[in-house]
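Thread: M28 family peptidase, structure

OP (GT): Posting the sequence first so everyone is looking at the same thing. Length is 735 residues per the record. Can we get the structure tokens written out before standup tomorrow? I want them in the notebook alongside the other entries.
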Amino acid sequence: MFAATMADGPPRPLPVDARPDEFSAARALGHLSRFATEPRPIGSAASARTRDYLVERLRAEGFGVQVQRAVGASSGAGLATFGRVENVVATLPGSDPTGTIMLAAHYDSAAMGPGASDDGAAVAAILETARALRERGPLRNDLVLLLSDGEEDGVLGAEAFVREHPLGRAKGVLLNFEARGAGGPTLMFETTRNNARLVSAFADAAPRPHGDSSMVELYRMLPNNTDFTPLSEAGFRGMNFAWIQRGSHYHTATDSIGNLDRGSLQHQGATMLALTRTLGNTDLTDLDGQGDATYFRLPGAMVTYPGALVPVLTVLSVLAFGGLVAAVRKQRLASLPRMLIAAVSAVLPLLLAAVLAQVLWSVLAGVRPDYDTMGGLLHRPVPYRAAVAALAVLALSLWYVPLRRRLGPAALAVGALAWPTGLGVLLTWAAPGAAFLCTLPALACALGGLGAVLLPRGRFAALLLGLVVPGLLLPAWAQAAFDGMGLALAGVPALALALFGLTLLPLAELVLPERRAALAVPSALALAVALAVTGMTAETYDQTRPRRTHLAYVMNADSGTAHWVSGDADPGSWTRRYVSGHDQGGLPPGYARNLRWTGPAQPMRAAEPSVQIVSRDGDLLRLRVNTGRGARSVTLRFDHPITEASAAVPGSRPARVAVDGTRPKTWPGEVRFRGLPASGASISVRVPGARRLTAIAETTGLTTVPGFVPPPRDLVPSTREDGDLTAVTRTYNLR
């Protein structure tokens, strides 16, 4: 989104005294400051205070408000996760409803930080939107606000909502808001299927709409989920939104109000308010059908077209490419065999660019292991991103320069264009919403090439016009890939940049004489190295841009011994105060998972788990689980895989999940209960052949551990969920 973002990024935030019927980021920040100043994970006191504030504010705006208390559940490979959730559900009847509009966001945060962006900003935006909606009278359609709990631990609140709450089965139109960073425009990155009319409403109503349908296709292929996932599976149609820039703050202590981009909050809220007003007054029965639409952002405008046009554009790009091949051959600028050799060999720079980018990341992570701890989402990534672009130029030069004299520039330019054309055909079949990334550049370049061949006097202008479309789309997509995936997957944006480079070859031939082309290889290599060195110099740490570390305290209540543990590859000086070696032999059974360092610790009195085996019926274990005061969660690890689990707390219905697979690098079966109430939980597990169970009581924070010294201000806990914890274990024999 480089060109689009530069042209029309997030808007100016509106002040507190903005018009009452407008969304004001300043007013939303007033709400955010009431609850996003500390972590509020599921089951915490901060979470309860946030819940109460939300209930109070929504009732003051005239909504009917209910707190849904239930047990949410989710499953993964060898894992069942449960949690006691408290969803805030607010309703406002419509004047003449044709259906329901639902705004959704989660009010819990990751345990590592205050979650100002993820997802406090969206919660505050919903409160401000609720206020602004009342200024113009009631909507036509019913409005439901779902402020869910337990999203960070496996979309537990949304799962419980669709399973137990009547409104969870009411269907309707869903607008879900998330964040994976601390700024940038709000992107519409996921939709339900048959989205054409929803996309049309989004493009028409949202101020400065951002996002594109390639994100929809990509997200459908990934295992990631948000609250949008269970709600859409329950029958809601809708759209999912998030901002993804400045991702180094994601799930850390620096996801704070101070680091939140106010313009991003304004864009999110203005989008939320505009869509709610539009859809809230629309006949929702008219939103069905018409398939999926293609949509993408250009500077100042959102382009949309129906899915039926995708194969038409693909056919046109193939025909235009075929016409270019015929024209080049007729003008004797290149022979068919040479163009074919060029086309086949053009895969080399694409693959090489991706490989070089991943090699760069491996080198950087080897020299600076803290980069790996950050998942490639660095504070100052621009020099490294530029280095990846230079490596893409290097890959192209290593292919182009040697073949230029042998095959000729025309053969190489035409052969290179075979790749966006062919990839467009492939995407039209496999991921139609992403086909525009290749078919439109291929079509534009082929037409520009035809113009250059048939109108020699206008050759430069024709080629330049042909490059406008790829110049707007491919670098923009590379930037979005950098924002969303980070440098750890730098090969993906490098591939997009190399593909863009292939479209530039005809113009490069005009502006880069042959005697200078040979300088491209050493120049690109030198530039990539210089940029990488610049990146290492620029990526320094302070309290606003800290480094990360993983550290936990583990005490074995059976043996009375305790250890510090860390998953860092190369712990820094502060972490090495606690860990000094790699011996994991003293850790409790089944505890170690992706741990690299350990060190002795002083035992202490702390909340510990208690597991009572209520009954055993074949492979089915019925357990009563509790922890001492202060522990927020309990984890049960079994020495055999589990196939099914259920959990209940007093006053709730049991939640049940099926489980497949095994947990890697630890005991194969695991059950978690987040937000465990003081009364404990009843847990049933089907675990064939189990002989042992290790229970782990988990308390957030290390400040009560003897000898603990707080980290320096430029160091924060990593995003690993088992870090910054006091864990007390007890092992039980099941036979």
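GT: Both are above now. Quick notes for whoever picks this up: The radius of gyration is 28 Å. Residues 382-407 form the longest helix (26 residues).
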